[in-house]
Amino acid sequence: MTTSPDQPWLLPEPEPGALPDRSEVEELRSVELRADGAAASAGRRLVRTELVGWGLADLADDVVLVASELITNAVVHGRGPGADKGFVTVTIARYRRLVALCVEDQNLTFPVSRTAGADATGGRGLELVGKLSDHVTLGRTEAGGGKRITAYWRSDGTAKCLQSATEPALAT
Fold first, then answer.
1. C-beta contacts of 77-80 below 8 A and 24+ residues apart
2. Which segments of the chain are extended strands (E)?
3. Which of 29, 36, 42, 151 is the most exposed place for a label (fewest CB within 10 A)?
4. d(C-alpha 163, C-alpha 172), whole Å
5. What distance in Å separates the CA atoms of residue 48 and residue 69, rounded to the nearest whole number?
6. Across-strand partners of 140?
7. Please, are residues 35 and 88 in contact by the beta-carbon 8 Å criterion?
8. Do the beta carbons of residue 125 and residue 21 sit within 8 Å?
9. pTM higher than 0.90, yes or no?
10. If the chain, 172 residues long, is cut into consecutive pieces of 10 residues, what is the mean pLDDT of each piece?
11. Residue 89 in 3-state DSSP?
């Protein structure tokens, strides 16, 4: 996917091959949460705990904020057709030089950024996701019944902006 006027938070496609695939995961933690008011808090706790445990506390604030935004969006907008009790899957993965946060929900509709007015209380979240992460990809869940948004951060201190468009399948 490429940057478009309605999705300015989505970065241009980088070169193929630079994003890791599942075989390159060094550590991974995934949890399925009920799509309710407690989901964002549980997701933030998971992300912070794993990053600190992996010695990556310096990334925690940005990754936790992005997790909060993506999980909240999934809870509010992510129920698929006919889903009475929605769920959200949150996965945090560590690669040799990257950290990936993947949030999946049951809705096939990809998010679209809104232009938030000066007094608006919402509409800035996806822009924050794009600004706080090094790369963002959109895709379908492995089962095809929902969407996956994955944000990446360099964990080795190198410059921002990854060089790949291939989205790894992070969820187990």
1. 77/105, 77/107, 77/109, 77/111, 78/35, 78/105, 78/106, 78/107, 78/146, 78/147, 79/35, 79/105, 79/106, 79/107, 80/105, 80/106, 80/107, 80/108, 80/145, 80/146
2. 27-34, 87-94, 98-105, 135-140, 147-154
3. 36
4. 25
5. 14
6. 147
7. yes
8. no
9. no
10. 44 55 85 94 97 96 96 86 77 93 91 78 82 89 88 76 40 32
11. strand
Concatenated DSSP letters of 67-82: HHHHHHHHHHH-PPTT
CA gap 140, 149 in Å, rounded: 9
Rounded Cα distance between 74 and 34, Å, is 11
- Measured distance CA(14)–CA(100) in Å, rounded: 16
DSSP state of 10: S
Q: What pLDDT was estimated at residue 153?
A: 94
